[in-house]
Amino acid sequence: MITKMLSDLKEEDLRALLSRDVGITDVLNSVNEIVMEVGEKGDEALFRLTEKFEGARL
Q1: Rounded-to-integer distance, Cα 20 and Cα 23, Å
Q2: Does the predicted model carry a pTM greater than 0.85?
């Protein structure tokens, strides 16, 4: 993950970042898939998703 301070961004980069489309439908679909998988597969899904999103193998 790359972390940057907003105060360090160029004005044009800040504008582009703040004006991007949030795409709430895509976010909700992704969250729903995660919740469904955890509900169906329990700990197995949590271990897989932790490795996928956090890079940590449990």
Answers
A1: 9
A2: no
